[in-house]
């Protein structure tokens, strides 16, 4: 059972989360509460909850100040921010301070809150697993034949005092050679790899990676590769007896290309690389390592498989925080209001071009993406039948926060705005529909997997079956039954594209019988679900 503290100055909001949403049956007990940030801090000092859920606007200490204080005292405590549409400045600050998610108060229901809490629970589990993994890793490395060399490399990078005799015995090329090159390698999608295969499985793959890449290094120069941890590897090579800068540059790049090729060929993994500046003595390695790690943060902007050369990189301001330009925001908002798709997408693309040009940090990019997504939500919240697009935006929000690549976030935002303009085309038709037709459509869209007979829906709307049938056919141009079948097929296409099994798709769109589902699907698409999957 996870213990949750809710901080909100509204008694109704605290009571609803504690009682009405029935979260305890899913393993979340809201057993602590506070009316403001100061009261919350005093209670947390005595009993720290597992998860903190806080409103942003409160008298005295607001939510942003509370999160800042909590993260200083308990950096691993997961925090969820609550806000309204008009509070995005608070949201921006809370995410910058390390809040794990934010929830819109107008959209607060059991499913939304539970999803955010489960995300926090997963972070807690990962943190606990990390402690166990660390113990296993320590045991693993202690038993590794290469551990002494690995520890020596770590000491060199940290600037620790090292006995020259030990260095000469284990890494002689660093003592006798000059022009030492440090190459930093970071496996791409490391968090996804750890989630799918487990951190221990990834570590057990490390000997294979080291063996393969060490053999590659021998073909180019004297050197060693060592694992630092978290998917990070450091290669140290020495160009003994060479003085040509062009030679160093050529060999280093050829080596990186070969490392990349062999890594992907034998392990099916990809990685990004940073070439450090040449140093003349081992004493220069700590500063070189720090610089290459700083440059590796550019990978969020340059994408997976990057090769960044420190000698060619522009001066970078570490931790540069960038916000969404008000002019750009107005341009996008005005284009959306005018239903001007072309100018809207041009303005969105310009925002991402600006982020790349200004070398914004990852947090800035994510927050700006959330602000762009919030513009979409604001423009549809009052329009009928917008639930599906709102759900889509909720999924996009999660993907944006998990993404480690700005190009992926660009794709997500472009997709959201394309969906917005597609929705506008449909929404224009709805303005002429009878209000009961709109209610029926909303019910169908929200209860796709339930029994959707005309009798049942008419009863929910308190209108007669014949009346609903007549107005629905007039507005939609097809019968109620035909519309439901067509809608279910369209939803099935979406689920099939996501890789959901045909059996589960049939159940989730409300057609439990697979043979009947095949017949319905084929009657609208001209092919079976299997055929549609292959075609796509």
Notable features of this structure?
25 helices, globular, Rossmann fold, alpha/beta, Alpha-Beta Plaits, 5-stranded parallel sheet, 4 domains, 10 strands
Short description:
With 536 residues, the chain is of the alpha/beta class. The chain has 25 helices and 10 strands.
Describe the structure.
The structure is a single chain. The protein is an alpha/beta fold and 536 residues long. It has helices at residues 11-20, 37-46, 63-73, 88-97, 110-142, 147-158, 164-170, 172-176, 190-197, 199-218, 245-267, 285-296, 299-302, 326-337, 341-358, 362-380, 387-402, 406-430, 435-446, 454-461, 465-476, 480-497, 502-508, 514-525, 529-535; strands at residues 2-7, 28-34, 51-55, 79-83, 101-104, 180-187, 222-229, 232-238, 271-275, 307-309. The chain folds into four domains: 2-129, Response regulator (Rossmann fold, 3-Layer(aba) Sandwich); 145-309, Reverse transcriptase/Diguanylate cyclase domain (Alpha-Beta Plaits), CATH 3.30.70; 326-429; 435-535, Homeodomain-like (Arc Repressor Mutant, subunit A). Strand 3 (51-55), helix 3 (63-73) and strand 4 form a beta-alpha-beta unit. Helix 4 (88-97) packs antiparallel against helix 16 and helix 10 crosses helix 11. The radius of gyration is 28 Å and the shape is globular. The two termini are 44 Å apart. The mean pLDDT is 84.
């Amino acid at each position: 059972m996870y213990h949750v503290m809710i901080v909100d100055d509204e008694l109704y909001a605290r009571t609803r989360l504690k009682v009405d949403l029935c979260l305890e049956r899913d393993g979340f007990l809201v057993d602590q509460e506070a009316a403001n940030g100061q009261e919350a801090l005093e209670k947390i000092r005595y009993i720290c909850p597992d998860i903190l859920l806080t409103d942003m606007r409160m008298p005295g200490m607001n939510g942003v100040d509370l999160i800042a204080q909590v993260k200083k005292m308990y950096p691993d405590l997961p925090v969820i921010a609550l806000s309204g549409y008009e509070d995005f400045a608070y949201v921006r600050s809370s995410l910058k301070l390390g809040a794990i998610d934010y929830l819109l108060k107008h959209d607060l229901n059991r499913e939304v809150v539970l999803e955010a809490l489960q995300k926090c629970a997963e972070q807690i589990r990962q943190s606990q697993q990390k402690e166990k993994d660390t113990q296993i890793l320590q045991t693993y490395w202690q038993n590794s034949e290469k551990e002494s060399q690995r520890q020596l490399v770590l000491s060199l990078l940290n600037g620790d005092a090292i006995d020259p005799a030990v260095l000469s015995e284990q890494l002689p090329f660093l003592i006798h050679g000059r022009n030492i090159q440090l190459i930093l390698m970071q496996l791409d999608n490391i968090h996804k790899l750890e989630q799918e295969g487990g951190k221990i499985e990834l570590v057990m793959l490390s000997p294979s990676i080291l063996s393969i890449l060490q053999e590659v290094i021998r073909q180019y120069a004297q050197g060693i590769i060592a694992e630092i941890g978290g998917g990070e590897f450091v290669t140290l090579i020495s160009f003994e007896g060479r003085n040509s800068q062009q030679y160093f540059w050529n060999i280093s790049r050829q080596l990186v290309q070969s490392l990349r090729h062999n890594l992907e060929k034998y392990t099916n993994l990809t990685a990004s690389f940073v070439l450090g500046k040449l140093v003349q003595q081992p004493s220069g390695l700590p500063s070189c390592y720090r610089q290459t790690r700083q440059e590796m943060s550019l990978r969020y902007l340059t994408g997976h498989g990057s090769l960044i050369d420190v000698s060619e990189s522009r001066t970078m301001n570490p931790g540069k925080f960038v916000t969404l330009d008000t002019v750009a925001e107005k341009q996008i908002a005005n284009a959306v209001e005018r239903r001007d798709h072309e100018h809207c997408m041009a303005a969105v693309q310009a925002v991402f071009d600006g982020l790349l040009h200004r070398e914004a940090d990852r947090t800035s990019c994510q927050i700006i993406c959330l602000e762009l997504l919030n513009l979409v939500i604001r423009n549809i919240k009052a329009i009928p039948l917008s639930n599906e697009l709102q759900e889509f935006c909720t999924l996009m929000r999660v993907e944006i926060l998990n993404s480690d690549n700005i190009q992926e976030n660009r794709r997500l935002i472009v997709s959201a705005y394309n969906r917005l303009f597609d929705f506008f085309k449909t929404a224009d038709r709805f303005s002429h529909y009878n209000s009961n037709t709109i209610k029926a459509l909303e019910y169908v869209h929200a209860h796709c997997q339930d029994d959707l007979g005309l009798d049942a829906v008419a009863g929910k709307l308190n209108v007669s079956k014949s009346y609903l049938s007549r107005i629905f056919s007039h507005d939609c141009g097809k019968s109620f039954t035909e519309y439901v079948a067509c809608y279910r097929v369209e939803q099935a296409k979406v689920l099939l594209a996501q890789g959901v099994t045909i059996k589960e798709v049939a159940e989730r769109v409300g057609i439990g019988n697979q043979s009947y589902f095949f017949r319905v699907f084929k009657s609208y698409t001209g092919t079976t679900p299997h055929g549609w999957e292959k075609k796509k």
